[in-house]
């Protein structure tokens, strides 16, 4: 076999491959065996039909077509290896010549990973928020815990902010009550902002049996994104009573004996959260600065496929779970189709550039992924997808997505390597150090992998989710 590589542009090549006919013989023999098992010829036992009879009855062309289809992937792979190429996606193959008993010639055009030069990035400097925990932060955290232990009691007065009201709701669009637009006995805390825009103003001041009508844009259901006329009736009004902030509350709400111990624990937890947020901010800003330094040629076919994948995942996974279609989503986001598609393309481009750049750094730095690192990453991905680790792992393996998860961890390690090499300071002018040896700082490789996931190419989670959903139905 002979092959030649022609560079069409920095991200696409054309392979021209010539295969002597004798190298087709294994596939040709396999084609005769396959046809033998599929057809019946009077006078011959199944599987024992001579090749010349198959040629006479079914045509030599059919056998050659079967043989070529069987052999092409092997010859293409050999040509890719011979040319030391890194193909992206499936090739466009064209058989240019097929001479029986002489020669097979074909071409294959395919996108390839571009050559990338990583410049010196040690001069990058970014500033992030200081990871400070104030007394007000601690008080707010304790108050949120206190809210969870609040009790309610029905009162005979008008509803006010903070009260829990039991409501019946009815939504109309264009004067028609929606099939999924009626709800009864809904508990809602006034001021929480967790139901519909405008409902707080509508129910405030109403007593039991009071009604009000207001307009609001629906956030889900069959008419998501559309404006509806909503009628609300207050069934009852309940006042919320918060427990006293004392040692007794600490014992009720936690494993601690005193309120001071509870507050100290809240401060520690908040400090961990702030450090994690700080690490994420640092990694995002360093990644953006790094991408500005590197010129990355963009494979157009890969970009087109990535845009389509992201659009598909949005429509069939994220919006589908909300009972919303793309038109409703765009209306809710106040975006035109053109704005949405431009934004999607920008995100896809950044994802591809991120993958190429961090893969090159991982290669240059000889970064590898251990089984322990992959397992930790898989467990976290499973948690974020709402699946068990075993279920997620099975779906990933069946979908052939293990290399994608390995890539996410590898790129996370590459980004962490860059972050450690650049200058990160907080808003107080203090240096910020993010490393895996600091157990309290969550700004580690796994945190970096999360940042990479936000920008990187799509696929693993969505496909794993598809398989898990199907498994649940079965």
TrEMBL record:
<comment type="function">
    <text>Involved in protein export. Acts as a chaperone by maintaining the newly synthesized protein in an open conformation. Functions as a peptidyl-prolyl cis-trans isomerase.</text>
</comment>
<keyword id="KW-0131">Cell cycle</keyword>
<feature type="region of interest" description="Disordered">
    <location>
        <begin position="428"/>
        <end position="474"/>
    </location>
</feature>
<dbReference type="GO" id="GO:0051301">
    <property type="term" value="P:cell division"/>
</dbReference>
<feature type="compositionally biased region" description="Basic and acidic residues">
    <location>
        <begin position="464"/>
        <end position="474"/>
    </location>
</feature>
<dbReference type="InterPro" id="IPR008880">
    <property type="entry name" value="Trigger_fac_C"/>
</dbReference>
<keyword id="KW-0413">Isomerase</keyword>
<dbReference type="InterPro" id="IPR027304">
    <property type="entry name" value="Trigger_fact/SurA_dom_sf"/>
</dbReference>
<dbReference type="InterPro" id="IPR037041">
    <property type="entry name" value="Trigger_fac_C_sf"/>
</dbReference>
<dbReference type="GO" id="GO:0003755">
    <property type="term" value="F:peptidyl-prolyl cis-trans isomerase activity"/>
</dbReference>
<comment type="similarity">
    <text>Belongs to the FKBP-type PPIase family. Tig subfamily.</text>
</comment>
<dbReference type="InterPro" id="IPR005215">
    <property type="entry name" value="Trig_fac"/>
</dbReference>
<keyword id="KW-0132">Cell division</keyword>
<protein>
    <recommendedName>
        <fullName>Trigger factor</fullName>
        <ecNumber>5.2.1.8</ecNumber>
    </recommendedName>
</protein>
<feature type="domain" description="PPIase FKBP-type">
    <location>
        <begin position="157"/>
        <end position="215"/>
    </location>
</feature>
<dbReference type="InterPro" id="IPR001179">
    <property type="entry name" value="PPIase_FKBP_dom"/>
</dbReference>
<dbReference type="GO" id="GO:0043022">
    <property type="term" value="F:ribosome binding"/>
</dbReference>
<dbReference type="Pfam" id="PF00254">
    <property type="entry name" value="FKBP_C"/>
</dbReference>
<keyword id="KW-0143">Chaperone</keyword>
<dbReference type="InterPro" id="IPR036611">
    <property type="entry name" value="Trigger_fac_ribosome-bd_sf"/>
</dbReference>
<dbReference type="InterPro" id="IPR046357">
    <property type="entry name" value="PPIase_dom_sf"/>
</dbReference>
<keyword id="KW-0963">Cytoplasm</keyword>
<dbReference type="InterPro" id="IPR008881">
    <property type="entry name" value="Trigger_fac_ribosome-bd_bac"/>
</dbReference>
<dbReference type="Pfam" id="PF05697">
    <property type="entry name" value="Trigger_N"/>
</dbReference>
<feature type="domain" description="Trigger factor ribosome-binding bacterial">
    <location>
        <begin position="1"/>
        <end position="145"/>
    </location>
</feature>
<dbReference type="GO" id="GO:0015031">
    <property type="term" value="P:protein transport"/>
</dbReference>
<dbReference type="GO" id="GO:0051083">
    <property type="term" value="P:'de novo' cotranslational protein folding"/>
</dbReference>
<dbReference type="GO" id="GO:0005737">
    <property type="term" value="C:cytoplasm"/>
</dbReference>
<feature type="domain" description="Trigger factor C-terminal">
    <location>
        <begin position="258"/>
        <end position="420"/>
    </location>
</feature>
<dbReference type="GO" id="GO:0043335">
    <property type="term" value="P:protein unfolding"/>
</dbReference>
<keyword id="KW-0697">Rotamase</keyword>
<dbReference type="GO" id="GO:0044183">
    <property type="term" value="F:protein folding chaperone"/>
</dbReference>
<dbReference type="Pfam" id="PF05698">
    <property type="entry name" value="Trigger_C"/>
</dbReference>
